[in-house]
Amino acid sequence: MPAAPAEAPVRAAKKAAKPKFAKTERTPVQPPDPAALIEVQHLTKCYGDLVVLDDISEKIATGEKVAIIGPSGSGKSTFLRCLNVLEDPTDGYVFFEGNNLCDLKVDINIQRRRMGMVFQQFNLFNNMNVLKNITLAPVHVGMQDLRRTRRRNFCTRLSNLFRKKDKKRPLLPVQTDAKAIRRYAEENAMRLLTRIGLADKASAYPSTLSGGQRQRIAIVRALAMNPKVMLFDEPTSALDPEMVGEVLELIKELADEGMTMVIVTHEMGFAREVATRVLFMDGGKIQEQGPPEKVFGAPENERLKDFLSKVL
């Protein structure tokens, strides 16, 4: 009997490793809380046999500033990336504005438009100047919406040819064009750059900027999409110490303006000052949470006590 193809076990392994929710659409354990902007139910993430997130359920309300602290390898960044499904959950559910992001019928890209993400390493495009980096996503999304509206109107006009006069469907309004989309994106980008004092860097390329400047531009790039929530994944970890302050100051300003935030951070003083709630993670679980004054001033969890004794 001929031997089985060598790649067959590989295909079988890949098939077995696929996330559960990608195979079938599942009914949530319970309806999402309408008061929660973000909600996770029984969120689990595994890499092979390694359990990185272990059955986490949590809610984040509009206007909250949630800081996530904990030792390296505790699952903080993975949890954050699961909130907008940059990491596929192995099990559980993620809701944003009541929409189940693990539902195959939900357009995840449309949901992500309202979830700003700032990474540790800036992730700016080095072949584009600052203005282009900021306007790329708004222009792309605006053009997508314009093309979608035009396609729908074309189909409506076509179907109206076969309808009686009183049965014809109205066309969707088209209130913009490609030039207007680009002009608005550039005006908005310049307004945001002026706010952070970097309007003179609009034509500069990321490689010519300091780490602090690049991270502030990365924050502005996320704000250009007018998000409902900002997700920060250790935004100061790649910065020199003298550049940390200017980035944290911008985040504080956003917090004061009421922006909903989830921040993974090792800056304990910043978490104590800005957060309305602090989550302590260890071993893939939320071990303790509460207001900053309680978490930092009167911790109950022994692992949290040990962690704070080493970092404060």
Automatic annotation (TrEMBL):
Keyword Cell membrane among record annotations: yes
Segments of skewed composition (Basic residues): 12-21
Ranges annotated as biased composition (Low complexity): 1-11
Gene Ontology molecular function: any one: ATP hydrolysis activity
The keyword Membrane is annotated on this UniProt entry: yes
Highest taxon of the lineage: Bacteria
Alphabetized InterPro entries for the sequence: AAA+_ATPase, ABC_transporter-like_ATP-bd, ABC_transporter-like_CS, MetN_ABC_transporter-like, P-loop_NTPase
Subcellular location per the Swiss-Prot or TrEMBL entry: Cell membrane
Assigned keywords, A-Z: ATP-binding, Cell membrane, Membrane, Nucleotide-binding, Transport
Protein known as: Amino acid ABC transporter ATP-binding protein
